[in-house]
Amino acid sequence: MQSSAESCWQKIRGRSIFLGALLLLGVLAAIYSPGPRVLADSDAALKDAARRLAERVAAIPGLRGPLRLEWHADESWSEGEGARWQDALRDAFDRRALQWNEDAATPALAIYAAQTSTQVVLTAKTRVADREEIRVVAVARAALPPAELPVAPVRLERQLIYESPDQILDASNLMNFREDGLAVLIYRNFEPVILRVNQSGELKQTLPLRVAGLKPTRDPRGEIFSSGNQATAQLWGKTCDMSWDSAAEPKCRSEKTSASADSVSAPEVSLTSPCDDANWTISGVGNERGVRGMLRLIPDGATAGSSATLTSDFPGPVLNVSGDDNQSHALVIIRNLRTGNYEVYQITLVCGN
After folding, report:
1. Total structural domains in the chain?
2. Could you write out the DSSP letters of every residue in 244-279?
3. Which of 119, 143, 167 delimits the end of a domain?
4. pTM
């Protein structure tokens, strides 16, 4: 028979083995059990890629500013996604104290953006003296989720309709009139004038607004509305009504609610997509007078920095945007920095990439 001492020792040894096995299982569970899932921060990954590229460009020997940023993306990139990356790159380059200039004679820093099945690749190219310098940064596509909203594919089309050396304050489509065209409100020699032009931009009618008591201003604001053969112009302190078919002069009256010469606010304008009836809000009015303008179209529910946005560059600052009741298209007024002329564009949403 086993002694009591041997029996006690066997119990102790068995208990030690059991406790050791439990400890080993606990360690293995801690090592191999799945931890909490960490979701990728698309903005953080994007900004980090822009920062790394900016650091590598800023470290190019002999590189001096100012530079002109050129963006070249392959066909898979949407305008909104491109604008998002360009904003991040400009911010990253600004932090490296790199100076920028839009003059065509300024040396270019070209950024080429491409997507592979697994990565987004950014390639920066520029010339320093007689040599070409290239810097490359790649980021995993998994860290950059697609557009946050499932909007139908659309693109933005624009058409130049009218241009003039005179300052264009506003324009509106001729609604329910006998022919298509525009009503255009201009400021010529410190006097407001209403024009009627056809869709080809040909001048059809000129109606000076000889408004008694209207003070000249260097920063005029105004709006024009047209329906049928009637048109109304809202000026600073005055409102004028006229008829395209009448030889009588426009009738003007004082209005406290008329457009103010000092007002810089613009009503919100949106377009309705013909693809899925989604509403796209237009932003970007009131650009600095000496820079090229950019409009952003943001679908309902998205943010301005979302990859779902559409963008469109113009050859000068965007001064005004006006829309129609049916929200099928809008009119954009800019001042072309190259020619000095004021221009009216019609923008429209069209289905497809």
Report:
1. 2
2. TT--SPPEEEE-TTSPPTT------EEEE-TTT--E
3. 143
4. 0.57
Residue reference for tokens 């066997």: 10
Q: Is 85 found in the same domain as 133?
A: yes
> For residues 177 and 125, which has the higher predicted lDDT (pLDDT)?
125
Residue 98 has pLDDT above 70, yes or no: yes
Give residue 314's pLDDT: 92
The domain boundary, picked from 143, 174, 197, lies at: 143
- pLDDT at residue number 194: 92
Q: Please check whether residues 103 and 217 belong to one and the same domain.
A: no
pLDDT in the model for residue 81: 77
pLDDT band at 95; cut points 50, 70, 90: confident
**Distance of alpha carbon 186 from alpha carbon 167, whole angstroms:** 5
Query: How is 274-335 classified by DSSP, letter by letter?
Result: TTT--EEEEE--S--TTS-EEEEEEETT--TTSTT-EEEEESS-EEEEEE-TT-SEEEEEEE
Residues, the chain = 353
- Give me the torsion for CA of 79, 85, 86, 90, rounded to 10°: 170
Residues 251 and 337 in one domain: yes
Query: Residue 233's closest CA among 245, 246, 220?
Result: 220
Answer for the pair 273, 298: CB distance below 8 angstroms, yes or no.
no
Identify the residue whose tokens are 């009588």: 248
Summarize pLDDT for 191-235 with one digit per residue, the tens: 999 999 988 888 999 988 888 888 888 888 899 998 888 899 999
- Answer yes or no: are the C-beta atoms of 177 and 244 closer than 8 Å: yes
For 37-81, give the DSSP string. Answer: -----HHHHHHHHHHHHHHHHHTSTT--S-BEEEEEE-TT--HHH
Contact (Cβ atoms closer than 8 angstroms) between residue 20 and residue 14? no
Would residue 50 count as lying in a domain?
yes
* Cα three-residue angle 34-40-44, rounded to 5 degrees: 145
Residue 278: per-residue pLDDT: 82
Average predicted confidence (pLDDT) for the chain: 79
Q: Do 196 and 119 sit in the same domain of this protein?
A: no
Residue 61: domain span: 42-143
In a domain, 13, yes or no: no
Flag whether 37 is in a domain: no
